[in-house]
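Dear Dr. V.,

Thank you for agreeing to look over these. As mentioned in my earlier message, I'm a first-year student in the group and I'm still getting used to reading structure tokens, so any feedback on how I've presented them would be very welcome. I ran two proteins. I've put each sequence directly above its structure. The first is here:
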Amino acid sequence: MTTARVLSADATTTHQPTPQTSGRAGTMSLLASEIVWSTKIFLRNPIGVLFALVLPMFFLVLFNVLTDRGELYDGLPFVQWNLAGITVFVVASSCFINLAIATVFSREAGTLRRMRSTPLPPGVYVLSRVLTNSLVALFSTLLMVFVAWAVFGLQLKPLPAIAGLLALLVGVLAYSALGMAVANIVPTQETSIPIVMFLSFPLLFAAGVFFPLEGAPQALITAMDLMPVRPFGMALQQALDPATSGLAIAWQELGVLAAWGLLGTFLASRFFRWEPRGSG
């Protein structure tokens, strides 16, 4: 089975939307039904499951087994620092990479066009895909937090944990918006994977979330401070710092992340395409 065929599961699966009902309760019922359906589609996608659930847990366990957990990274015990970096990877994989590629496949296979002609409100269809990927990222993160706490001695404090959840929420929203925006500039199914990977992995590795940027050129650090990856990681690191007391919200970093989210929302809503390229 080729990667393209795996990732096109959503585009080729026949789906009959739940009959539309009126009112807010009806809309919420439709949304819940679509989230259940898109979750089933996600679980049939081995590449998506690999990137969003399997690889993050594998990296968490592997790095903590192989590394001296007493060593400090950017002033944090390794398990605290490592969890922040892998959480960034989880959110980027689920809410940016998977969402952008799946949207391109659905659009180019004509699924989005067909869904738009059904009684299902288009906004419900799009929102269900965004929420499904967000829930996958949240589930994967909570699972890693539990393993890191139970096995590797992760330290958690109530107030900083609230700041961590806030950073996670802002990150999920920002990366989802950017994923939908990037889907608009990808022309074909064949180019979706290389383009999305090219936009994500260099930033992930250059942002210092997988290894400290000690000794890196200041220009690189300044540039990464303005990108959406490093501020997300720093906000999570601050919330996971055992020395932090009180509500450790990294307002400046979350502001940068929110600005990227607003830009992604504008671009996604302004240029979103339901029709395959070349369909006229």
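The second protein is here, in the same arrangement:
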Amino acid sequence: MRVEPVEGVEGVYWIVNHDRGGAARRLATVNLCPGRSVYGESLEHVGGVEYRIWDPYRSKLAAYIMKGAKRLPIKAGDRVLYLGAGSGTTPSHISDMVGVKGTVYCVEFSQRAMRELIERLSARVNVYPLLFDARFPERYSGFVRPVDGVYCDLAQPDQAHIMARNAEAYLKKSGWGLIAVKARSISVVAEPELIYIRELETLKSRGFKILDEKRLEPYEKDHLMAYCLFEA
């Protein structure tokens, strides 16, 4: 077994296994809390370092990397505002990537999901759970400092507008944004491609420049991930 960095993606690695059938590789991040698995993922030890395997079928950000993301903006020390944190699967890997000097503000509206997130991520010193509705960013202004990036994964029909409102409130100029567009949360009848175009046009009209976009099949059906910069 060996470890290789993922090109253009800081803090994410390939764990490469060799057997008689050839080489197989899996995504992973360095575990910020050694000995602890967050959602049942495998822990691998290579060269005295513990890595957490990152499943692209359970995380849209991992799926985006697997689909060939040319570059990922997240880096060590970043403050990240995560909208729609759910029970903490992807936030836990971003927590690994930004490290102890970084911060992940996890905004989640569902009380059940927030309870699971707190149970899973309570040992992580860089994670701040926020039980709020992301549609109203002013309600958590007392808890969030200016951020380097906004990650948006909301099952809402106006998710691009929600991301833009949060960017206007907290994102630094030239900060980055990542949005997982869920076509079927917006319309169950419209063609996903038309929905993606409309959502990206919304982001452009609110000051974002789109740098990359990729559909996430086969990992996530009718989803698109877009990477953008905030220029407003």
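From my reading of the second output: The chain has a mean pLDDT of 94. The helical segments are 60-66, 89-98, 111-121, 159-170, 183-186, 192-205. Does that match how you would interpret it?

Kind regards,
E.
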